[in-house]
Amino acid sequence: MSNISVNRSKYLIWRKVDMLRLKPYRKEYADTIISWSQDERAFYKWSAGVMGAYPITKKEFGFVDSIMTFSAFDEEKMIGFFTLRNPGGKIDELRIGFVILDPRQRGCGKGKEMIRLALNYAFEVYGARRVSLGVFENNESAYYCYKAAGFKEVILDETETYIVHNEEWRCKEMIIER
Q1: pLDDT tens string 81-121
Q2: Which of 89, 150, 152, 144 is nearest to 119 (CA)?
Q3: Residue 79 buriedness (CB in 10 A; 0-12 / 13-18 / 19+)
Q4: Does the model's pTM come out above 0.70?
Q5: Measured between alpha carbons, how far is 10 from 161 in angstroms, rounded to an integer?
Q6: Which of 87, 117, 158, 161 is surrounded by the fewest CB atoms within 10 Å?
Q7: Backbone angles phi, psi at 132, to 5 degrees
């Protein structure tokens, strides 16, 4: 009997916290996701310019079609997007990338919730043992979001850097292991 109540308690807690749902990305979401980059600096913080220069087109955003893509939805609409890929072909590791949240949804825990759902997928569904990501040092809100979701910063021998607007942007490496 106590096992049933424990399971119910876990279920009730999960349902209470679970404000978002992940769905597979669909190409018709591209325009909405692109619209969330309201300025060039914000665009480079989540894309690192990998897809192209600001503002990118729907065709350039198609770059994500070659990797695992997810959209996060609240009860009303899509509020976030991210990708997962195997870095270096490692089957037991996934890397989160291209994380973006609708600017109107920031600051209320939805980014952390989306990352936790990504981690749940990576560990429970995919079977990864490690999840990594990179975040620019000048993207403090994202850094603290990832820390709140359980990621730890890793010090690397060489720090990945990008040149954006003649500035050097350094990337922090973060991981979480199961």
Answers
A1: 999 999 988 899 999 999 999 999 999 999 999 999 999 99
A2: 150
A3: buried
A4: yes
A5: 42
A6: 158
A7: -125, 165
E strands along the chain, which residues?
Answer: 21-24, 68-73, 78-85, 93-101, 130-136, 152-154, 161-164, 167-177
Structure tokens given for 121: 């997928």
User: Cα-flanking dihedrals φ and ψ of residue 109, to 5°?
Assistant: 90, -5
- In this structure, the chain runs to a length of 178
| Per-residue pLDDT tens digits for 142-166 | 999 999 999 999 999 999 999 998 9
Whole-angstrom distance, CA of residue 45 vs CA of residue 47: 6
d(CA 87, CA 104): 31
What type of residue sits at position 60? E
- Mean pLDDT for 64-78 is 95
